[in-house]
Amino acid sequence: MPHRWSPRQSLLLCLLAAGCAAAPPPASAPCPEPPPALGHSLPTEAELSAEHERLVKAYRTNDVPALERSLAPDHVHNNVFGMIQGKEELLADMRAGTLVFRAYEITSSSWSLKPDIAVVTGTLRAEAERAGKPVPSQDFRFTRIFVKREGVWLEWLFHNTIIAAPRK
């Protein structure tokens, strides 16, 4: 019987593959980048950064219609509370006022680009409330995976974690 991957295992494999694809080859064994598939060209960082800024603005302004257009139907949102939400759950929380952003700003970012997938990692500063209570931190590390579907870049995965204060 073939092995069936759980959604979490599949997500982990995808993240590992994206990380491996983004890692440079060891100096002792150079491996040239394969050419893009026919009909597919590598996106530019400027193209993806503009899409990322539109997405960030939608979060910052709680613009649910813009997020509906920017998130993939099978979007996965892993938040700082350890919750995994799909697109509809996340947007329902925002519509209901359960999740409200007061501020949202990218403070650093680094991209890995492929013809139909882009990974951005970095830091962000956000002020938000969940269920009327302030999120206990404002500084986060994040990873976003964008996928290109029918010519449109969509956020497929978002994961963030609180940046811990340095130990003294």
Automatic annotation (TrEMBL):
The keyword Signal applies. Residues 50-153 form the DUF4440 domain. Keywords: Signal. The keyword Signal applies. InterPro entries: DUF4440 (IPR027843), NTF2-like_dom_sf (IPR032710). Residues 1-29 form the signal peptide. SUPFAM superfamilies: NTF2-like. PROSITE patterns: PROKAR_LIPOPROTEIN. This is DUF4440 domain-containing protein. It comes from Polyangium spumosum.
